[in-house]
């Protein structure tokens, strides 16, 4: 018996838009944690975010229709947090802590709407800017990236017949499961999904999260995606990102305040959160400079998330720093999240095992590894290096130096000034693949 | 919006049985061609078929529930040819020939029903016999095999969650498509699906056929499965099988008639069919004996289907035979169908290219290659070597010698007699994997 459900079919055909982002919780958890800090301490600050496509060879505006992009961004702007979502944020424990979010903050969040955007096409690329209060523009980072990445994936799949899609996903599933089987051999692995922004698509990310959960059991500790965490009863994972030191550095008056700004961020953070959330991100202006100037109390924090140095060298540098301050690294935590994949996870895990607790945030190579999966060939589904970064705060230019000069952002003159203040020690160019 | 189609779901849950064989056309085309010959020339002959599991290590009756097997066999006995099916058999051209089937034969076929079966469990194996008129028992071969193979696959998958099944099929699809991409590099390949009897399941065979059609285009010439040929507008492929010489040999009175029986089959066949259907199966009692004794007119036939000798050696033997009789092999056809897979297809294709036309019947390794695909490990989905062979005709024992003694069937004393009549030249044991 061939059974056609005419109602569903008619409904499906009537779609005006297949929305990519369908909830404001379809974002990274750290955005909410940072938002609460920004809302508490920097409510008056303006911040502009901009899309940066590091993979210049992919001319996004030639691939993605501008009208479709606007329709998706406009749809995201119609979203509000639902009652169920607000109740969950209020009632759920995060990192073992109840009432992570202040009732006043949640009351404010209830009416939150993504602010306006400014979109232009220049030389085959999208110039996409979000200008306005930091409390609002910050929330565009993840949906903007996941929308553009999924629109690109959809463009890469447009015109493929059902069969080619079937092979494509069979290969991608086989690929991922082969990775899971390798990771399964690491008994003390601690891993989470950090793949929201660069995902192939929402449904694919959900499948990947289910796969890793199924394959790794308790070793998979959760996902950075708040919506998936809520819907799948997983832990929401994340702490903070470069935008905090970048904005505070941009607002600093003079070189001395600039040099102190990374620690001011940590001080604000510890006044807002504690426990497992005390993870420092050391590389915004170079890890060596950060460690050299760090106050003693930073050594009491739970750990670090080295995010642009090579994982083993970057981790060793932090271990040395802890030891020099009399701290036992075995009680500390390193979170690795910079373009990790099975090989680098295995190597980093083996290198540090027994010497320091490690945790891995697996991003693009978890949720968007379609390399060589397309039966029609080509690279239209290979991931690109797309970021959405703060570029100015209250009209002052923002800078990120990073441990990897290939990941630096900001105006050349300002970068020069930052290098003068923070130094250039131990920074080395690594190719940025994802 | 989560949409649940309650009616479909309720219907699905109400199934008493998920039938494996749902049409009498879900069989190999050669069964119909042979059936017409049997119906015309041997209507009074009785023939008994029996299931033979060559993979003794797999105790089928421990894996498959006897009640489930009976339910599937009983269901197959309820099937009759539908009006659409009979009209298609009458109106379709096969091998470019219209009216392949006689109207009287089709009128008889209209009321065809699979006959009774005799099922017992002995020492962990099913003893399954079909006794009765040859015109009826012959039609059990394919449904009996595909039912048992699919029940075994279902047993191997029982208890697996949705996720493990997802990985299983992703891997099997990836595997098959990798094979298709290799075969695609052979520009003059001619290939067809011979995988009905050993398939993992009907839906999987259909997917495999679609995949090969998609990947190989015109180089995929069709399928042996009549139902799939009808539903997918493919050519139905097939000629004849060992049961014809086996029955005629069993019925032969004395050694001289026995020695002549393989050619009597060909004579009956050419009186019934012509053109592309003039393909001889030389190995029932050894290819060397067959070629040595063959009348001159056999060299005028379109070609041979060597089915148990190693493909290159077996093909060379036939080429020599054609050349010795002044025939140009480039006008002849060799069909290879014995446990072929990508490696052996590539090697055989390369060896004979330009010297003789070749065609490949791809069976078990097309429709049932799940080796190492099970995320839970184990071999419960690896194919086994299961056949359903004629064992007696009008109460006299039937024998198959084959070019490969591992594939011989029959009582030892009769095999001895056949070896005396046909000789044992050039027969050599090859492992029988599928």
Automatic annotation (TrEMBL), chains A, B:
Gene3D superfamilies (UniProt xref): nicotinate phosphoribosyltransferase
Top enzyme category: ligase
Any one Gene Ontology molecular-function term assigned to this protein's record: nicotinate phosphoribosyltransferase activity
Signal peptide (from-to): none
Reactions the enzyme catalyzes: 5-phospho-alpha-D-ribose 1-diphosphate + nicotinate + ATP + H2O = nicotinate beta-D-ribonucleotide + ADP + phosphate + diphosphate
Record domain Nicotinate/nicotinamide phosphoribosyltransferase: where: 191-421
Residue stretches making up the Nicotinate phosphoribosyltransferase N-terminal domain: 25-149
HAMAP family associated with the record: NAPRTase
Name of the protein in question: Nicotinate phosphoribosyltransferase
Organism: Sphingomonas yantingensis
UniProt gene name: pncB
